[in-house]
Amino acid sequence: MILVILKDIAVLAGLSGALALLLVLAQSILNNYGECKININGKRDLTVKGGNNLLASLSDKAVFLPSACGGRGSCGACKCKVFSGGGPLLPTEKPFLSQAEIAAGVRLSCQIKVKTDIAIEIPESVYNIRKYSATISEIIDYTYDIKGITFMLEQGDSIDFKAGQYVQLLTEPYGKVRQRVSRAYSVSSKPEDRDRIQLIIRLVPEGICTTWVHTQLKVGDKVSFTGPYGDFFMRDTAADIIFVAGGSGKAPIKSMLEHLQLVGTSRKMTYFFGARTLRDLYLTQEMKAFEQVFPDFRYEPVLSQPQPTDEWHGKTGYVMPYFKEVLRDPQNTEAYLCGSPGMIDAVTKALLELGLSKDKIYFDSFG
Amino acid sequence: MKATTQELKVTARMQPGIITLSGFLGDDTRPLNEIVADDAATLARLERSAEEIAQRMQYFTDESWNTYLGGVLLDDKYQVETEVYRGKLPCPYVHPGVFRKAITRLTNSANGISVAWTALSIHLIAEHGFFEGRGSAFRLDPEILVKALWD
Asked: ipTM score here?
């Protein structure tokens, strides 16, 4: 009896093993798309192994499209035009695409499986995006929840970016976090420092990357990031400028001012920094020092909820009421805003009411 | 109740370090469908629906959205503020869309109850009836939440 049972078990195990083997074989045959070519902008061919999604295939070849969700199809950032080979538009893409984009062949690269040769179009600026390795050379506690971290690139390496652009920092596994994630942060150092970048990072409750930065990273640690990304950068005109920032939104404005310090400018500039209390202010002396550098520059920190112990004698409330004090020609004024969407909305509304052109209000709303 | 394949996938995405640092389940050992079912039973007893709770939360978030540098007092008793951080989060239930990293904090001065939720919390309640597991950072006990939002 026992022998019969053992024999049956052995037969069943053998059958299961054979079926599993068959499945693996079938999968390797059916999912084997061989080598596929990705043609970019009609100029460059990349040869990749088929079967992966387009975003990852491009990334493997050091072509980095922006992505906030790591290819999960939930952020809509990795758009590119697909001329052929992309297959039908998927339901997971439609929520992120306008009718005009669909008509123009725009797709989410993370949702397209590369099964055949494919022809795409990406902005030329994407070619400047690459992966960097760096070592942390300095960590500064700016406030109780904001740190400034300087990343030195590997010897001989350099980065080319515009003041105001951002990079995506890649985390390493730590604690309960088993996978790597990437998060976007504006560069706060000037573009002329080509061998390093500084990021200003605020601790986000429950944030995987910011907790890693605030609790794990130390001077000497090696990290990697990709970039530069983004179209939030200074326009080279002679117009007056109003800068507005809050929290870690100070980063790109700091980069812009440090850049202007090197190249020189006579533009009239006013920088409003909104914070709640004195303990939320940082880099105040450094920003004030620009008043001695530029011929027409003012730094105006504004506290919305100054505490009695702050002994604050500066501007209070919201930043918007103070704009009209500094505006001399709304049609010849640009605004650069970086902060929460609430701040961006309120400030944009106020600036439009004062007569600024919508197309001269540039912002980074903590996307 | 046996968990479906989809629930197992969602549960995996709710673990620490996948979308948020501590995940969505806290130290709750119940299966996802039981967590949702238990909270649904509480809502039925309270005669409130997940949809109306989410709508009420959205109202407070919207009203405090533009008061980005401080709170707002609503209906003479709800002190509310919303703080927005850089970045967005996907929903652990797999579907398109991301949610801003925004935390709304509400204190009801009539009963002294304070609660906090994220933009994603509102979606999780409205669309999935999920108030998070016990012990998670943004667990919203339906009974306490209803008291905070209405009493």
From this structure: 0.88
B117, β-bridge pairs: B104
Would you report the helix, strand and coil content of chain A in percent, each value rounded to 5?
Answer: 35, 30, 40
Q: Residue A28: inside a domain, yes or no? A: no
CB A147 within 8 A of CB A200: yes
Give the closest of B17, B87, B88 to A179, CB-based.
B17
What range defines the domain where residue A84 resides? Answer: 35-126
Q: Which chain A residues touch B83 with a CB distance below 8 Å? A: 340
Phi and psi at A54, nearest 5°, equal -60, -40
Boundary-marking domain end, from A126, A153, A176: A126
Indicate the residue among A126, A150, A182 that finishes a domain.
Answer: A126
Task: Inspect the interface and report whether the beta carbons of B87 and A204 lie closer than 8 Å.
Answer: yes
- Classify residue A221 as exposed, middle or buried by CB count within 10 Å of its CB (0-12, 13-18, 19+): middle
CA–CA distance, B49 with B43 (Å, rounded to integer): 6
**A167-191: pLDDT as tens digits:** 999 999 999 898 888 888 999 999 9
Residue showing tokens 């890649």: A170
Q: Enter the pTM of the model.
A: 0.85
